[in-house]
Amino acid sequence: MLNVFDLITQVSDSHSTVLIVGETGTGKEEIARAIHQSSKHREGPFVAVNCGALNENLIESELFGHEKGSYTGAAGKRKGRFELAHGGTLLLDELGDMPKAMQVRLVRVLQERRFERVGGSEPVAVDVRVVAATHRDLPRLIELGKFREDLYYRLNVIRIDLPPLRDRPEDISLLADHFCRRFTQPGSSRAEITPDAMDVLLRCPWPGNVRQLENAIERACATARDGFIGPINLPQELMRGPHVHRCSSVDLSRPLPDQIAEMTAAFEKRHISRALRQTRGHIGNCAKLCGLSRRSVSAKILDFKIEKKSFKEAM
Predict the structure, then answer these.
(1) Which of 24, 106, 178, 308 has the most Cβ atoms closer than 10 angstroms to its Cβ?
(2) Interior CA angle at 178 toward 221 and 240, to 5°?
(3) How many CB atoms within 10 Å of residue 63?
């Protein structure tokens, strides 16, 4: 996830299309919003449309709008999502479920950044950053003839892969704490998660990913008493079935000081690498950002075998 956040920062000033791929519930829309908020389009609107939830006969009108009288029921002119997102960001969610016929027109719009409303002949030009998201395997859909290859390459300029929650168990406690703060009622104290309840959270495989965890914590906060969230406050489905313990950060076969030293070194390396990327490899500015002396940063770069040149070239 640190790599995902770094990539968001790197592409913030770009106008290139972004493709976010991840299982349902991994937070694809939240990543799209983060891209919008860090980009030059942040002053414009953020418009999201679920391509899989739209009726096949209405999706063209939904995306591009229509003129008055263009079809039965079109009582007036209507702007589509592309026009509404002008100057901002358009999220095409679940793009893998878009009808094949509609994909043809989308290729042209992505190329020309202009289109005609349904029933209209005047071209409408838009300045919009397009972000697409899907949980589907698009290359596989291309093989099956269900997704256009040219559209895939138009979208797959900058790709962000979101890992499922089961592959990043170290995030569970952080996310649970975040959701506890979010769902605390105004004027109330934040509920604390007991060790037994946290153990249940860490053992759950989370097939619904971050969304499932969010719903579980919302329920727990609503039912918590005396300021503590225990196993009894968690959804019953978390308490049933074989849960595989995925958190491997605790290894009792090795001395604790050794493990702490390794974790600290790994965090230092990530922190300095991120600071170098932000300062374009400038040691002095990196040292100021990290709150360290120039000598300390230089020594750590040498110890961790960090290539300064790669950060300069990346920018």
Answers:
(1) 106
(2) 55
(3) 23
List average pLDDT for each run of 10 residues in the chain, which is 315 residues long.
86 88 92 92 92 79 76 69 92 91 89 82 87 94 94 93 89 91 84 88 91 94 88 85 46 77 82 83 90 92 80 53
pTM of the prediction? 0.70
Strand locations in 31-85 (E): 46-50
- As a whole number of angstroms, the distance between CA 47 and CA 287 comes to 39
* CA angle (198 as vertex; 194, 199 as ends), nearest 5: 115
Cβ-proximal residues to 26 (8 Å cutoff; 6+ apart), any chain:
162, 163, 164, 165, 209, 210
Which pair of tokens denotes residue 192? 């604390």
Question: At what angle are helices 2-10 and 256-278 packed, to 10 degrees?
Answer: 10
Which amino acid, 295? R
Pairing state between β 123-125 and 114-116: antiparallel
The DSSP 8-state label assigned to residue 22 in this structure reads -
Element (H, E) at 116: strand 114-116
Compute the distance between CA of residue 166 and CA of residue 214 in angstroms, rounded to an integer.
14
Nearest to 267, CA basis, from 290, 247, 250: 290
